[in-house]
Amino acid sequence: MIRFLDEIDKIIDYILRNDRFIVTSHINPDGDNIGSSIAIYEFIAGLGKDVKYVLDDDYPTNLKFLLDEKIKNKSNDILDRGQTIIALDSGDYSRICIDNDILEKATEIICIDHHMTNGEYSNYKYIDTKASSTCELVYNLIKRYEERFEKMIISEKIATSLYTGLITDTGNFQYSNTEVSSFIMAADLMTRNADKNKVIQNIFQSNTLKFYKILGESLSKMEVIDEKISIIIVTNEMLLKNQVAYDDIDAITPYSRDIEGVELGIFIKEKSVGEIKVSLRSKNYVDCTKIAKAFGGGGHIRASGCTITDVSVDEAREMLIAESKKHI
Question: Does the domain spanning 5-203 belong to CATH 3.90.1640.10?
């Protein structure tokens, strides 16, 4: 049974009443970010609305298969103002990856998200922290539209985009956020011609040799603290040496957690000097959101992130170890 039907119906009715939309999401795009964005973009475009997909960030190589050139816009491409913004998978207003001038002059902001730390920055919102992914919420919204208006809307493109976000946010159905509804959704998308093989090959089977070299280097330097906390570090120097883009190393993250006896995995990524990105993953009892919040971040209980600025990698490491020990 779909939760929050009133909120879903309000968003559907708003979309039907209005004509100009911009779809966007959070910085550092991932599968759920891009998958949900493209799905809602295709849905609204199919209704005959004026809609653009805008994201002021680079796309990971393994997700570019979802993108058509016509929908890859940046804020500089948007000359007018006053559209409705649909912000997907953005747990905080500050993480919405679009120019502030466009945000501030928006007619309305619609928030569709599943993060616990969502600030509820919108009058129109569909926030379900129990959902596996934002793609699951977009799927529910489109299914509700189909039910109300007795129309089949989910195309192969929409189905493939939604399937991408579902399997990336559930770790291909491994993570604790995987529910019965996740499998029901996957089965339905398969009947709608979601290209499962294309998704699997691009997400899990297309890493470059350079990626595996930096993976090997980072794993050789992995450390375990007090048998419960593991840390993997990728520095900017390592990225340059291996000629790997910063946006293409997120697949390393689970290795920090997937060690026997380890409860908390920390993946430290140096994006630039003084800018340290951190991914946190836990297995059973550590609430990653509490650690992330200590550094201005957020996310989910078992998967969160944050950015630490104006410190070195070693300083960030010490800060994270000290905070993490409070929760072990």
Answer: yes
